[in-house]
């Protein structure tokens, strides 16, 4: 760790200089943010209803922005001695990815086009946040076990492969996934899990610092609740007109049902019959993940409740039973349980979208039928194909990234440095660990 | 308590299955969220100015949503050993009521109509949150003294009688109450107080765990501030045009004056002359409650300040003097003091609306006169009548509900289980209570 | 301190009565909130694109509102024993200033006009929040060293001189400063620093209570993140059309770069090579301050990154090196380091705006050229002139205010009362200070 200072500083400063240069070469304001038409920006939209104005995008953009920094950031503060790192590295990663993904998203958007400039508007800012969400999900799998340098390396690679996955899934397969069940949640989770598998250390299991204390669990609820509240904006943000309205309704219903069912299941599977904050903090959100790919489809309100209820079952059982098995059998340590919150519910979302689409027909969908890009059976098939490709890319590229991060040059953490803010932060006080715990941990 | 597991799980799972079936039978997307008109949803509004579009509703809806889960949820975390229960049962109740009130609100809306389907849009989601607010206010009166099963039973009943009260007050009496002083705040408070009176136990008085600690009071301020900030959206949400704009201005002014006056009074009535966090957390919000029924009326800015100032006086004195008296004399234990924050300020709001309306005339109100449904004196009278009916329904139905909840089959709490997360949550640590406090409490 | 009760109560009650009277005399609803035109408020805007409707203002207004109470309020809770005072006096000051600045802003707006009424709409509420921001920045400089009475006196004076500074800078010099780098951030900082210099006590240096503990630093991050998230609304709120859109983009980019560079620098300048929460909580925001005066100009995206990166350098180095020097050499104690977050980055913002304007020309700016009120070189010069006048007014009036506050009649604090909630709040518990610390402090 003696070189932490230099590496973290160097990599960030070099990256920032490169970003400034690349932004100078490639990035400018979009038409509605540029100098040309002073006056009412609403009037610049020629195809009313197909394109969203600044006023229609901005409130949803800000909701998603809150999800990134307050939502993900505080959700991760449940660890008793990693509150600084959780909320702050989440902050750093988001900012880094906003810059980097603006470039990468833009370059991928140029493919086949005639422009060589990236034109920014509030929609591109929203898509930068979606890239950030993907990286932050992966971060959750290795929370407390990676240095800032490792996280930045990971983010740099992940933003590129995330765009590859979207290029194949959306541009070629033309899958529909308005809320990112496939391309954000499942992709981010399995990429992160593959990294986590590579970074696995035996000492992670039953580490004394990998737990919450009473008030760190309350801090985490700030994250949970803001994610829950603004998830409708996440799922509806890219949609327009009635589709957008429907995506909001579906997501609110799915999340509500998911929360009720999570409370139902959490206590019945507990040894003492009590509720478990891990479930409440996480599984209540699975309804948002699973609804993502179908949010603008006609699942109908009862369908949205059914999807949310199913997601709660999958996610809660995942936390209680599957996660310990995966850790024991395949040495997969998943700090935040992203497999249960984003991985499996993301796959569920893809499957649900294929089923929902299979039931679609022109009579019921009317104008909304234009959501689809293929015949109904083809579209359903491509949903599954896109999911398979996304998972494949995520797992392979995540594993390779994990291998790269194992190279002992990225401020890698030792066993006793896991889940501990003191490693990277000026904070001596350790009020929550007893002396015996410290000793126990120091010698492991 | 041996059967907690089974009952909480069973009631929630059964309810969720019933909700899915009933949603399948009765609920579908509203016109603007349905498949018909792809394209700009704004253009579907035929009566511009009388009906709000998705874009006009959604930001205010999200503000109200934040009030429900962050506002109410964190305000209640002031208890030192009930943080999990406060924020989480608040979360569960909100989700449960969103589903249940969508049905009940919809059924009441069908009365006299020709449709037998409930059509969802963002406005119906807003009204589901209003029903949730009513239940959460009642929850505040019995915070820490009821099991989740009892809370769910209470919510199920309350949503129905809440709709009865609105049917009489709004459909028949045609009272105006844009921000719910009467039908949300006063109703929710007196319903909850009636329940609390029935559940009263002697041990609640001076219970060692019914108090705050330093950082739980700071968590509570997160709730207070978000309630304060988004209250203008609560009071203005259902209004349109200039009325909506005016409701925002009136509410901001009322809340600001209320906060200043609360700070003025809090220290002068304290024995040591110091400020009291209970007042700052709660009475600062009374200006929002009292402004509710008059928010879209021409109170004029000075009137809004006067209303907010009066609410601060009523609420602060209520916390300081009336609450201990009620506890001693009529055995009314009110954990969050909802009588002082929602009950009395709600009644004040109804009276203020009657006075404001009495001073109204066509010359001053111009087009805004269409707010009223009767002649001026009639409208003023119906405001008071609606309040009386709401209070009557609340107190009677609340008392009956409380009686029902006393039946020893709903995971009722024993004395030593009051205000304690350990009863329902996996959390052993008790860092904030000394050994002596534990002993003292355990034997009471 | 024996008279605290009386003074704080008296001053607030007298002020509130005066406000009610003055509102009755001077303030009424604006046209769009008044009774006249019932119906679609959007249609009342005659000059589409030049004037913003309620719907365009309200979401940004609410974002700024959150910045005032959650942002500033929680950012200041980093102090271990001043959490109540930080969040609550911030709350009181904001409410007091909303009322007082509505009057003062309105009176200044009348100069040269023909009306003698102040007409309220959501835009005037936004400007009341801007006045509040200025006062809250000054509050940061004297956090924990001033009584509520002193704070109210300070706010009363500052709102007036703030308006004088804007009158000279904007009405006469016609400087452009959409996000308030000059008139809000630099002004508020130097006013507060001048007050702080006057209130300086030797005992402030190395006071045992002037520090954070682990979880108070996490509370503070709630403030940081919400300020960061909603800063684009602060900088873009007063702008229209493409300028508003551009201000959002520029601010998001500037803040992102600022955060990355702050993380880069924080660890390299630390003795142990570790990250410092003070930097992460504060310097990450300097990019929003420095972008303010140029947010609606054509800095281009790379320019926004450059501005944010520069602000991070200035601010972080300020916290690390300049602040201790200023304290030692000129006895300037700055509790929150507002000089580093608002003062120097505000000056940087003014300089950046002059440079950006110097490079402007009609070809590039097209319709956006109408932002400027003079020829390009003149406009650049007036930017600097306005900054100089703002700083001059701030420092002189701040020093005089500080002198006034030193009069021993405003509940002035003794040395042992600094940074301590117990002075003004009902809270006996002191879990975070050891007995030896208390003794040490009590005798200083």
UniProtKB/TrEMBL annotation, chains A, B, C:
The record's InterPro entries line, in alphabetical order, gives:
Ammonium/urea_transptr, NH4_transpt_AmtB-like_dom, RhesusRHD
Chief place of localization: membrane
Which UniProt keyword terms apply here?
A: Membrane, Transmembrane, Transmembrane helix
Q: Where in the cell is it found?
A: Membrane
Tell me where in this chain the Ammonium transporter AmtB-like domain is found: 55-407
Which segments cross the bilayer?
A: 12-30, 60-79, 91-112, 124-144, 151-170, 182-200, 212-231, 251-269, 343-362, 382-405
The UniProt entry lists membrane topology as: Multi-pass membrane protein
Family classification: Belongs to the ammonium transporter (TC 2.A.49) family. Rh subfamily.
Could you tell me what this protein is called? Answer: Ammonium transporter AmtB-like domain-containing protein
């Amino acid at each position: 760790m003696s070189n932490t200072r230099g590496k973290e500083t160097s990599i960030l400063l070099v990256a920032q200089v490169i970003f400034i240069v690349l932004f100078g070469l490639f990035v400018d304001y979009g038409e509605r943010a540029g100098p040309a038409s002073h006056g009412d920006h609403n009037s610049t939209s020629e195809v009313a209803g197909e394109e969203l104005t600044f006023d229609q995008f901005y409130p949803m953009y800000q909701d998603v922005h809150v999800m990134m920094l307050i939502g993900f950031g505080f959700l991760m503060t449940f660890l008793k001695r990693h509150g600084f790192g959780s909320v702050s590295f989440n902050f750093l990663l988001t900012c880094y990815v906003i810059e980097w993904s603006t470039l990468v998203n833009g370059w991928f958007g140029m493919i086949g086009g005639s422009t060589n400039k990236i034109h920014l508007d509030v929609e591109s800012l929203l898509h930068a946040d979606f890239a950030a969400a993907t990286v932050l999900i992966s971060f959750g799998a290795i929370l407390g076990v990676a240095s800032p340098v490792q996280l930045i390396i990971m983010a740099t690679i992940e933003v590129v492969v995330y765009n590859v996955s979207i290029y194949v899934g959306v541009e070629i397969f033309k899958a529909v996934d308005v809320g990112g069940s496939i391309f954000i949640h499942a992709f981010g989770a399995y990429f992160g899990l593959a990294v986590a598998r590579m970074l696995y250390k035996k000492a992670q299991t039953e580490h004394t610092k990998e737990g919450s204390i009473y008030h760190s669990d309350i801090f985490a609820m700030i994250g949970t609740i803001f994610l829950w509240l603004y998830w409708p904006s996440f799922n509806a943000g890219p949609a327009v007109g009635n589709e957008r309205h429907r995506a909001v309704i579906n997501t609110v219903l799915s999340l509500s049902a998911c929360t009720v069912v999570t409370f139902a299941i959490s206590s019945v599977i507990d040894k003492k019959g009590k509720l478990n904050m891990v479930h409440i903090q996480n599984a209540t959100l699975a309804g948002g993940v699973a609804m993502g790919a179908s949010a603008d489809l006609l699942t109908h309100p009862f369908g949205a409740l059914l999807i949310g209820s199913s997601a709660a079952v999958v996610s809660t059982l995942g936390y209680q039973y599957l996660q310990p098995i995966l850790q024991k059998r395949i040495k997969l340590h998943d700090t935040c349980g992203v497999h249960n919150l984003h991985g499996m519910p993301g796959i569920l979302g893809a499957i649900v979208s294929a089923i929902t689409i299979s039931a679609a027909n022109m009579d019921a969908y009317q104008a909304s039928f234009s959501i689809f890009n293929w015949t109904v059976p083809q579209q359903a098939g491509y949903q599954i194909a896109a999911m398979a490709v996304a998972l494949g890319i995520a797992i392979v590229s995540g594993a390779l990234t994990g291998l790269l991060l194992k190279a002992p040059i990225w401020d890698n953490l030792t066993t006793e440095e896991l889940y501990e803010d003191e490693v990277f932060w000026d904070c001596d006080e350790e009020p929550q660990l007893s002396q015996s715990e410290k000793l126990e941990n120091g010698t492991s």
